[in-house]
Amino acid sequence: MSLLNYWQDFLFILFPKTCGACQSVLIHQEEAICTSCLYHLPFTDFHHFPVNPTAKRFWGKLEFERATSMFYLSKSSLVEALIHQIKYNKRPELALFLGKYYGKMLRSSLFVDDIDLIIPIPLHPKKLKLRGYNQSAYFAQGLSESLAIPYDESMLRRKVHTVSQTKKDRVERYENVENIFECVAGASTGPLHILLVDDVLTTGATLFSAAICLSAHLQCKISFATIAKA
Q1: What is the Cα–Cα distance from 225 to 212, expressed in whole angstroms?
Q2: What percent of the chain has pLDDT over 70?
Q3: Is 185 left (phi over 0), alpha (psi -120 to 50) or beta?
Q4: What's the mean pLDDT in 46-67?
Q5: Residue 2 and residue 20: Cα distance in Å, rounded?
Q6: Distance CA 230, CA 101 (A)
Q7: At what angle do helices 135-147 and 92-106 cross, to 10 degrees?
Q8: Are residues 165 and 58 part of one domain?
Q9: For 100-191, where are the E strands, in sequence order?
Q10: Which of 29, 54, 151, 210 could form a disulfide with 144 if both were Cys (CB 3.0 to 4.6 A apart)?
Q11: DSSP structural state of residue 13
Q12: Are residues 1 and 108 located together in one domain of the fold?
């Protein structure tokens, strides 16, 4: 065993890596999420079915191509624990891991066949400074690496700092995020099929607002992907 291996083992004893869902210590060859939690996570398989609950969130609101979510999200679930760790416990590497993992799943379907670019929902600079990272950008990066499709964090900007959506009803959520994004002029030329990604889909208001902004400024088609659907 090399000196590097001994050093890595020593660091693991001092700072063991834990599962992002159940917090148990990861064993050899486990990455980010333990084998047991991966087996029990509620994958949706929406990417295999054009008519699915995530897609239905956008029916009648705008023209789009496809929509999917990786997991079902329910109260006090493993997925809720994962999202909490990603957003509030400084573990963006979990979102990167999920992006890579989901990208491998999407490759087995037709969902991403004609996607040209992946764009994450941006955070407002104030929230980005407070949190230190954009979890949706990490998810987008993971998808990009797994799918070999470029991603761009600069094309879409959040120009309005909105209050939390948690306690708002469906109508209030749409009003809260109306016209909060801006598209960077000249960021792209020619027609694009954009995969717009976010962490959690609830009403779809934030993704809707971002899609409207991109469609108004670019010659593009829009599809959606999220880590979870509430």
Answers
A1: 16
A2: 87
A3: beta
A4: 97
A5: 29
A6: 20
A7: 30
A8: yes
A9: 117-120, 156-158, 181-183
A10: 151
A11: H
A12: no
Same domain, 84 and 175: yes
CA 112 – CA 103 distance, rounded (Å): 9
Give the pair of three-digit tokens for residue 83.
């999202």
**Whether residues 126 and 210 fall in one domain:** yes
Domain count, the chain: 2
| Dihedral-angle region of residue 207 (phi above 0 means left; psi in -120 to 50 means alpha; beta otherwise) | alpha
Same domain, residue pair 30 and 49 = no
Query: 91 pLDDT band (50/70/90 cuts)?
Result: very high
Percent of the chain with pLDDT over 90: 78
* 55 CB-near residues (< 8 Å, 6+ apart): 46, 64, 66, 67, 68
Q: Check if the beta carbon of residue 119 is closer than 8 Å to that of residue 151.
A: yes
- Overall pTM surpassing 0.85 (yes/no): yes
> Is residue 24 domain-shared with residue 55, that is, in the same domain?
no
Which pLDDT tens digit goes with each residue over 105-141?
999 999 999 999 999 999 999 999 999 999 999 999 9
**Domain span at 137:** 42-229
φ, ψ at 106 (rounded to 5°): -65, -30
| pLDDT exceeds 50 at position 1 | no
120 & 96 share domain:
yes
